[in-house]
Design goal:
single chain; 281 residues; alpha/beta; Rossmann fold; 2 domains; 4-stranded parallel beta sheet; 8 helices; 10 strands; 41% helix; 18% strand; elongated
């Protein structure tokens, strides 16, 4: 019998993120059901189920070896190994192998290209956004009149801002810059540029990325979140883009969706799982 797959999330107070994480865990259970692989998910903090509860549940079902896979696009911090080491102290018979983070797998880059294409295809049907309520939650508002729709803009006049989460780990931030370059050369080569920005912690922020594109002469900018699931981080990306756009009405700014729960992402996770198993044989 193959060991179970344990997906580890950072954790979020946002219900939308937790719901999509849960749907993705369910998708993987369905995908791996024919191989009798048990799939579980747990968070390091803030959300439930906690990692400790998920590990305890797997141990109670007789699993003493598992594959732990941080559900992350970039390199993980020390909190993930520390959390698993703590679980091993709690359960001395526990053995585990690590799976690699998901990015920048070529299939992840292809998913980003899909999100970019979807945002670009909606140029003729713009969906403006406005802030709603006390939180920076966004909703669609009525589209502008036809006269207000921006005219045709060539890809060479359109820039892309790839937005990562941001980290205190310089290597993790450098990896996002690397992904931007890979994405530009492999999927977005028709566009003027692919610039890098971050939601928080480290510069440049989303406004800084947009400003650089404007100074390079872009007439249109598409913001592509380098994020797995919807939630608070995505809303902050959109809110920052919206705030910048309010002060620069001549620049057409569009926001793409996150990668999201999908079959291709499940393919990447399953390959990481199988890879981890091969490394120990």
């Amino acid at each position: 019998m193959k060991p179970p797959l344990l997906l580890i999330g950072q954790g979020s107070n946002d219900d939308a993120y937790a719901a999509e994480f849960g749907r993705f865990v369910h998708r993987l259970r369905c995908r791996l059901d024919h191989t009798a692989v048990d799939v579980s998910g747990g968070y390091l903090e803030r959300s439930t189920p906690r990692l400790s509860d998920s590990v305890s549940s797997l141990m109670a079902r007789g699993h003493h070896r598992l594959v732990a896979l941080p559900l992350s696009l970039s390199r993980v911090g020390e909190e993930f190994p520390a959390a698993m080491a703590l679980e091993q102290q709690r359960h001395p018979t526990l053995m585990y192998d690590y799976g690699r983070p998901l990015g920048p797998d070529p299939r992840v880059l292809a998913l980003l290209a899909d999100r970019l294409a979807e945002a670009a295809a909606e140029m003729s049907r713009p969906r403006p956004l406005e802030l709603v309520g006390a939180r920076p939650r966004l909703r669609a508002v009525d589209a502008p009149a036809a006269d207000d729709v921006p005219g045709h803009v060539e890809p060479g006049e359109t820039a892309v801002v790839l937005v990562g989460e941001g980290s205190t780990d310089a290597a993790a931030n450098a990896e996002v810059h690397r992904v931007s370059r890979l994405f530009w050369e492999t999927h977005a080569y028709d566009y003027m540029t692919v610039e890098t920005a971050f939601v928080s912690v480290t510069p440049p922020g989303v406004p800084g990325g947009l400003e650089r594109c404007r100074r390079l002469g872009a007439k249109r900018v598409i913001v592509v979140p380098y994020l797995l699931f919807a939630g608070g981080l995505l809303e902050r990306v959109w809110a920052q883009a919206l705030a910048y756009g309010a002060g620069h009405p001549d620049l057409d700014i569009r926001c793409a969706e996150v990668i999201g729960d999908c079959e291709t992402l499940a393919d990447v996770v399953i390959d990481r799982y199988e890879e981890a198993l091969q490394l120990v044989h």
